[in-house]
Design a protein that fits this description.
The structure holds two protein chains of two kinds. Chain A contains twelve helices and 13 strands. By secondary structure, chain A is α+β, with helices and mostly antiparallel strands. Chain B starts with a helix and ends with a helix. The chains are: A alpha+beta, B alpha+beta.
Chain lengths: 328, 509
């Protein structure tokens, strides 16, 4: 029974965590390049240099003393996001939507006092949200305005698009939609909805929520499959360029769509998760192998994106007519 | 990465290990099981003391041949000390002396003994002399009362001894017994009083001191037994019940009232007895049969180390087994644990506490540490002071735990002292972080996983057969290393992943 399960997963080309580490992360991701993606401040600078869109940085806090200067900085903006530079899986992110006198209103409508906000910043500095508890920096940046189109299929948060890029080739992607359960966060294990995206067209496929296939968003009731993601080609190009940016052979690129500024790169990940395969109901392995076999280092970004769109488009469900088989 | 290089390395390591193992087993005939030579034992007495730049004299009672055991071989390790052995009231005594010694010193007595297998001791030519009793005045009166009471109630010597011992061991001793024993009498004191009382009745008796020949033991306790002369031989009687018996593995070290160790001009005198089943001598017997190569091999084997160091290595050599198991459970099964080697270190602590108690202790300590950690969270401390505070709290709790359980008579609770507290502290810290970031269920799940792996590692690491095998054939570790390296390239699914991606497999496409 276990063996059958094992074999059927292997047949579908499912990438397991051991194989991801041994065959892709260890050989393709040089360790000295990790800091480029682990520190969001550094990633942002690199992306800006390369001319890629990122949420604008309003300022950063690196030592506890600087917390005193925060009001001056924050006064210039009505809405903003505070996040740890080394945070992982969306922990420690505070989204402020508006301001009422000396208090701030969060994206979910709750009020937070100025004092509590400053305490949150000191917590970030003390390394509460960073891997291994190392002292960290707090970033204050532009709050992304969700694209009105995508806003209808998410709950209290900005959907983010994850694209796995292997040696510069986008190989798989999904959109993660926050739900009430995930508390506005875009993490699948926290209850966000994940929908695979057809790489060729940018149209969402069936969605997975809590390991179940769903068609509608559990909170808004809107259909989540068959949605066309705007700026899809730009998204693929930006993701593909991240290879030159970091030099990491196997990475996950997280992009959000802003109402006014278009695609913005949120963060890069050197050890992207494997749940994307569930959302797409396709294994990563055949695609990774095809890139290893046919993808050339000399190809330009355009050529790589074309390659991916040609080979990694979704296999559309067969038409009913084709399903009938001829019996002899 | 060069695949050929990898496989050549793995094959080379396993072939070297296997080759050495087979050579030692087939050609040199090293024993594969621990029980093949169960009648030869290595004993060691390790004396440590601090000399004070004065003349030093240390005397230690050493075993002698008896009808039960033969001392096959013995040696004394004494750097710079003069050594004589002499016989002192029926016991052999080794005396080390030096005109001037200073600093911490250690002396070793090492003996190899073999069970002689003679059932009955030869009858003594004449009855032994009775050591004159020391009773005087009111004590003599009390002693006489006890003896005459017991004689009145017993028909033969066995009943007499049984009656005497049970009277001395009563929960609430009567007046005369209390007078002779004093308030807090240890078992040895009771035995010595019994010997004196028997002497008063003109029955020669003495206290025997010895150890149990267990498979492996460090710091083994002395076991005192009662011997009574009857009908030409010394007969053994159980020290509390008075049954005429003695454990089959009892090894007599010395007899009589004298202490094991006497000294002059030293401080902090301490003696530590250890015993182990002698694989070494079994191997020596093989050497005698004509294998020339072996002595060189043995000179550089683990057997050339002192016994207490050997005991340490018996444990250390099992750690790789635990590590391999850990690799299997983490990379093939996919169990989540705190820290990489934390479970193996916890498993080592379980060796002292036993599994069930170990799990109970560990859970209590972690639960307590977590509550301290959550409290400290309010104070917003920096990382290192916070860790240090948890560590201090953990040490305090360990001490409190030992004291309370000692008072309650649960001696098991004392073994909590060997828990690796730094590891405990780190486990608590990581658990609290996971608790906050991923929620309680994830934290408890990982804590449970750590305990599970520790329990599994403990079960493997306490297999005595495996312990023997790795100690006699440490080259097997090379095979273990090869296996671990091989697992380092395992890129198949983990068992837990199969469950995680189950949905994926169901899909017909």
């Amino acid at each position: 029974m276990i063996l059958d399960l094992y074999k059927s997963l292997a047949k579908k080309g499912l990438l397991g965590i051991n194989q991801r580490n041994a065959d892709y992360i260890l050989p393709y991701n040089a360790r000295h390049r990790y800091p480029l993606v682990d520190d969001k401040l550094l990633t942002k600078r690199l992306a800006l240099q390369a001319g890629l869109g990122v949420p604008e940085l309003y300022g950063s806090v690196e030592i506890v003393r600087q917390v005193r200067d925060l009001p001056e900085l924050l006064n210039r903006h009505t809405d903003f996001v505070i996040k740890p530079a080394h945070g992982n899986s969306g922990e420690g992110i505070l989204i402020i939507a508006s301001r009422i006198k000396r208090a701030y209103r969060r994206h979910n409508g709750l009020l937070i006092s100025e004092e509590a906000l400053f305490h949150h910043v000191t917590n970030i500095l003390s390394g509460m949200y960073s891997l291994g508890g190392h002292p960290d920096k707090a970033l204050i940046e532009y709050r992304v305005q969700a694209d009105p189109f995508l806003e209808t299929i998410s709950y209290q948060g900005v959907p983010d698009i994850r694209i796995i890029v292997f040696r510069g080739f986008p190989v798989m992607s999904m959109v993660r939609l926050p739900t009430r359960m995930s508390n506005g966060k875009a993490n699948l294990h926290q209850g966000a909805l994940g929908a695979g995206i057809d790489l060729a067209t940018g149209t969402t496929l069936e969605a997975v929520w809590q390991n179940e296939v769903v068609d509608e968003h559990p909170d808004t009731g809107n259909s989540v499959s068959g949605v066309k993601i705007p700026y899809w080609d730009t998204l693929l190009h930006q993701a593909s360029r991240c290879y030159e940016l970091t030099g990491l052979g196997y990475q996950g690129v997280d992009i959000v769509l802003d109402r006014d500024k278009g695609p913005l790169i949120l963060e890069l990940n050197a050890r992207p998760g494997l749940n994307i395969q569930i959302a797409n109901k396709v294994g990563l392995l055949p695609r990774l192998r095809q890139v290893e076999r046919d993808g050339k280092e000399s190809m330009t970004v355009e050529e790589r994106v074309t390659f991916s769109q040609k080979h990694f488009g979704a296999v559309l469900p067969p038409q009913p007519a084709e399903q009938t088989t001829n019996h002899l | 990465m060069n695949r050929r290089h990898f496989y050549v390395l793995v094959a080379g390591l396993s072939l070297t290990g296997l080759g050495m193992f087979l050579f030692k087993f087939l050609v040199l005939g090293f024993p594969l099981t621990p029980y093949e030579q169960a009648d030869v034992w290595d004993l060691e007495a390790r004396i440590t003391f601090e000399a004070k730049d004065k003349p030093v004299k240390i005397s230690l009672l050493v075993p002698r041949n008896s009808h039960l055991v033969t001392v096959v071989n013995e040696n004394f390790i004494s750097r710079g000390f003069g050594l004589i052995t002499r016989t002192e009231s029926g016991n052999r005594q080794a005396v080390w002396s030096m005109r001037k010694a200073g600093g911490a010193q250690s002396l070793y007595y090492h003996a190899t003994v073999q069970k002689a297998g003679v059932k009955e001791a030869r009858p003594l030519k004449k009855p032994p002399e009775i050591v004159p009793h020391q009773f005087e005045g009111v004590f003599l009166e009390a002693a006489t009362t006890i003896v005459s009471d017991i004689i009145a109630q017993s028909a033969d010597i066995e009943v007499l001894i049984g009656g005497l011992l049970s009277r001395l061991h009563k929960e609430k001793p009567d007046g005369p017994v209390l007078l002779l024993l004093g308030k807090k009498a240890d078992p040895l004191k009771k035995l010595q009083v019994a010997v004196d009382l028997l002497g008063l009745n003109n029955t020669p008796a003495r206290v025997a001191h010895g150890i149990r020949l267990k498979e492996q033991g460090r710091d083994v306790p002395l076991i005192h037994w009662l011997q009574v002369y009857d009908n030409g031989t010394w007969r053994d009687y159980h020290p509390t019940s008075g049954e005429p018996e003695i454990p089959a593995d009892y090894f007599l070290w010395w007899t009589g009232p004298g202490p094991l160790l006497q000294s002059k001009g030293v401080d902090k005198l301490h003696v530590n007895l250890s015993v182990s089943l002698s694989i070494d001598s079994a191997i020596n017997a093989l050497v005698d049969r004509g294998q020339i190569l072996t002595p060189q091999l043995l000179a550089f084997s683990l057997f050339s180390l002192p016994i207490h160091v050997q005991s340490t290595y018996r444990i250390l050599l099992m750690i790789p087994m635990g590590a391999l198991l850990l690799v299997l459970l983490r990379n093939v099964v996919g169990v989540k644990t705190f820290g990489t080697f934390t479970p193996v270190l916890i498993a080592l602590a379980f060796r002292e506490t036993q599994l069930l108690w170990g799990i109970v202790f560990f859970s209590i300590m972690v639960a307590f540490g977590l509550s301290v950690r959550f409290y400290l969270e309010h104070l917003k401390l920096l990382l290192v002071p916070r860790l240090a505070s948890v560590l201090i709290a953990v040490v305090l709790l360990m001490a409190a735990f030992s004291i309370v359980s000692h008072k309650l008579g649960l001696e098991r609770g004392l073994s909590v002292a060997i828990f690796p507290m730094v590891i405990l502290t780190m486990t608590i810290e990581r658990m609290s972080i996971v608790w906050e970031e991923r929620g309680a269920s994830e934290a408890i799940q990982q804590g449970f996983g750590s305990l599970l792996v520790a329990a599994a590692a403990y079960s493997v690491m306490s297999l005595s057969y495996l312990e023997h095998l790795l100690f006699v054939f440490p080259e097997l570790l090379l095979i273990l290393l090869a296996g671990t390296i091989l697992l380092g390239r395992y890129n198949g699914y983990r068992l837990t992943e199969l469950a995680r991606f189950k949905v994926f497999a169901k899909d017909p496409s």
